[in-house]
User: Fold these one by one.
Assistant:
Number 1:
Amino acid sequence: ATPTAVMVATGVGANNGVLIKGGDALERAQMVKYVIFDKTGTLTQGKATVTTVKVFTGMERGEFLTLVASAEASSEHPLGKAILQYARHFHFFDESSTTNGTLNDAKELNSGWLHDVSDFSALPGRGVQCFIDGKRILVGNRKLLSENGIDISTEVENFVVELEESAKTGILVAYDDVLTGVLGVADPLKREASVVIDGLHKMGVIPVMVTGDNWRTARAVAKELGIQDVRAEVMPAGKADVVRSFQKDGSIVAMVGDGINDSPALAAADVGLAIGAGTDIAIEAADYVLMRDNLEDVITAIDLSRKTFSRIR
Ligand code: ADP
Ligand code: MG
């Protein structure tokens, strides 16, 4: 392609909200064999919503939610935010009242309803831990609980499996080292996701999904989209290794992601595509920035490269 063709393509991209960082990135996209998608916030809307709350002890539901919300109050994770929002609604929005959807208690404003927590820690790929009145509370996945010696009964395990098989994430809660309850969280797919996966197949490109979420949920989501190749329970640092494993035979690999966790993988990929609504660090690590937060632009990016480098000479 001539420099003019590259300039034209870059301009066409920009007009569509596809920012291309240089001619090399534009050239590599035509040769992509695998496109690896992050799940949360990339294939899904990243708008996690609590759909299920189940308490397994005698604890009152409201108190359970306050405990979990207090533990998640300092979390930056979308799952933590979803839980906090759900608990806030449970306590402060009275559906029977006429002030539908408005705040009806000033306490909500200053978080006065939450417990004081100490020694908060966010454990990447696992969940959160902190202490309330000297009692430990753990909120996260099976790995978090088992690493901390908490027993998961068959009843709880069956409940979590059922959530996961319907594409939800099960979040387990241990309070004072007793498994107290489980929350189910759903994160809807982006509307265009399955069309884009179909489109890639038709272009001869193989879509792959990578996620820190558990295998069962990951498989359920991948199945809905028609993605055959899934890598789940990948620790945040492991996404770059997944990219490298696909590059081993010399294949050109693209990675699409949005979060801080995704930036090493975006940098490791031959073509890194950051979803525009994502974090600055992801945007910095990427070769392409998709400003519109629309997955169709992954196809636009590959198309643009193919057209620039194989037809226009
Ligand atoms: P993803 O790749 O889907 O963004 P993460 O690596 O961020 O996944 O998280 C992996 C898993 O760790 C989540 O699916 C969840 O089970 C657990 N987890 C992480 N952070 C939290 C949190 N703040 N609260 C509850 N669970 C969490
Ligand atoms: Mg993500």
Number 2:
Amino acid sequence: ASPRLLGPAEIRDLAELLEVTPTKKLGQNFVHDANTVRRIVQTAGVRAGETVLEIGPGLGSLTLGLLEAGASVIAVEIDKRLAAQLPHTAGIMQPGKPLTVVTQDALRVTELPGEPVRLVANLPYNISVPVLLHLLEHFDSLQSGIVMVQSEVGHRLAAGPGSKVYGAPSVKAAWYGNWRTAGQVSRMVFWPVPNVDSVLVGFERADVPGTESERVATFALVDAAFQQRRKMLRQSLSSVLGGTSATATAVLEAAGVDPQERGEQLTVADFLRIARAAAAADA
Ligand code: SAM
């Protein structure tokens, strides 16, 4: 039988046909292992008939796996040559399956031709966090997802307060739901082989804890707190809470947060309480 997913030979042939020289700038590392693809699709719990959003389909490794599982795929790819080839590859290897390719920068997508319920992607590594936050902000229909990211970033996304790797991405991600790591992936399944390890990260959306303007205010506090993560909150937040450590202390106390704590101890709910106390103090 002819292959239905991309292995090393198919990746090589496609790259040759398209004269693709993978670029670091676009994080182009292509998966050439069918087992890895099926594992990602299975971990994501993709069900036949549902609409899946894929960012950065590349040569189509994961796309074909999603189509094989019976999903309708909306694939957003910035590289024009790759985007143009994808329907042909899918037409040969998964004929008749529902695929829509959007040729665009994922960071700029605000509308999609459909309502995806799941995100499944092997993300371009240099922009994985901004892409995730952008998609969660703009597409309420996304209820869950599995993404492959650089190991370090994945552990950061899934970290909770008190962890060494807990940082601004962890708090911002937690605004939208619950995150977990879902298994390592060897760098050997990629061509070219990247110099970092990868991890699968899953999320389940939860109701957002505040309004859009509260989110913006909360994220500004998070950025300020983690820009100076070793400083106490009354110092790290002074510039965004009235200008002095005394004004910051008053807001923090009104929010029920110890001014001597550091950002790495706070949950997203704590940051939101500070944002609300600051708004109340301004009013
Ligand atoms: N999904 C494929 C796979 O698993 O083999 C390729 C994954 S590769 C790590 C990342 C892909 O994202 C590349 O195809 C790259 O061209 C694309 N990409 C990079 N930046 C992008 C952006 N801003 N918007 C959409 N796609 C992007």
Number 3:
Amino acid sequence: RYAYVNGRFVHHDDAAVHIEDRGYQFADGVYEVIPVHDRRLIDEGPHLDRLEYSLNELRIGLPMSRRALEMLARELIRRNAVTYGFIYMQVTRGVAPRDHKFPKKTPAPALTMTTRQLPKPSAEMEEGYSVVSAPDMRWKRPDIKSVSLLPNILAKQKAAEAGCQEAWLVDENGKVTEGSATNAWIVTKDNKVVTRRADNSILSGITRLSLLKVMEREGYELEVRPFSLEEAHDAREAFLTSSTNFVTPITRIDGRAVGNGHPGILTMKLRQAYIEQVVHGEGG
Ligand code: PLP
């Protein structure tokens, strides 16, 4: 298995970065996860758009042209024979003697890539996930896909310890922002799909964006607004979206059944439509 590290493909076991890489010392960097399905990258364009957005917000340069990034990603997937899974890309501000402010002499941004092979998406996801709620303890710019993920890690660990697959983060107003690594959605009793606006308070999920397009095409009723944890508890259906989970039904929140406790009908229709149009389609 290979990894890409600052200009070279190296064996995964030998892949290493400098100890004064600012990503390592300060979490001064960003990342992307692009899903691979049947050897193809899904929504590669929007993922690279978001990478550029995150880098711009932090004033880190794009390490190379988009064309070059795309070629490297494809080459790593080919070398590692990834069929299903994802490619992970990370860009940090680079190596410099430890000092919080940006280095005077701008270092070359550090670029690394790894791949992960995962089982082909299975029926398990379609049985529905359980989630627990947890306070959203993150900084005020989760729209930047920063490698600083401690609050997300702690929330996900809480979920795991509760036998759940995800944690839903709740802000100080009692509203659900998003999951620790997924976007959050509910379906109301009158069949309206509700999701929060992608402002600075959440990561603008690529799966979320693609699903919104699918919904528009298919004429689903949508409400873009925050929803409270209480509303989620009482919702008819709930689901999450992410690159590796696609559209996944949620059947329990904080131990309580959502709706009838089975994956929602509308949710499963959306999952099907997403898979047909985005995963098997042109890639959105
Ligand atoms: N929200 C957070 C905090 C995430 O880390 C992720 C990504 O994995 C998502 C949402 C879903 O985004 P995407 O659909 O681009 O995978």
Number 4:
Amino acid sequence: MSAGVLAGKVALVTGAGSGIGRATCRILARDGAKVIAADRNLKAAQETVQELGSDRSVALEVDVSSAQSVQSSVAEALKKFQQAPTIVVNSAGITRDGYLLKMPEKDYDDVYGVNLKGTFLVTQAFAKAMIEQKLQNGSIVNLSSIVAKMNNVGQANYAATKAGVISFTEVASKEFGKFGIRVNCILPGYIDTPMVAVVPDSVKQEVVKRCPLGRLGQPEEIAEVIAFLASPQSSYVNGAAIEVTGGLK
Ligand code: NAI
């Protein structure tokens, strides 16, 4: 992407304190956007902001699984840059892997709450703000996962939420098109972030062997695609689910 293509835009990124969210903040800021780095872990979001510079970014504490927290984040976000974000990236996500027969209800609920309900709450709240302010050219980017198609053993909760994100994205793209808001999602493969750091080495080696590019992805390689989807250069891309996996299927 070319520098300055997002100048004048405000972006909200959830999960901004780590991995793909943090890399997305970096790339969107490089392309000229002002960035609201939102995370449940405020300290981590503040570290992201420290790296970007406080003139073009601010940190925001939000728990995406809580409607109340998301609601107050809208008010906070509007205060920060006097304008609703027109770029929203739903990168907050968690895993609680385990075999289905042994999966505690809490592990199912927690993953659902952040990955799918969180995507719903943030999308609904910030789309409303964009529509109320009559802002055009909005772009919402959701993080699904290639796991939505691979459906790995031990990931019933995670895989179901990430498949849900694909359907959710498509519905939102149909409902929001008339407001000038595009909604797309990305299915990353295995990306070298703290989320994947806890995956056993043997599993990672197997993934790398099956990946045509023979390596894990870097968070910036997802962030660049997010920046494209956020920019006017993708103006006719809507309701898409884009695999960014190095060819891993
Ligand atoms: P990560 O674990 O490095 O970062 C996730 C961030 O989300 C953390 O900063 C965490 O504090 C924040 N978070 C967790 N729960 C939250 C909540 N309730 N409210 C607000 N923030 C919350 O994860 P990573 O790797 O950056 O993943 C980002 C997204 O990409 C996730 O949705 C993940 O499922 C998805 N993804 C990641 C892949 C990977 O290989 N790393 C592959 C496919 C999808």
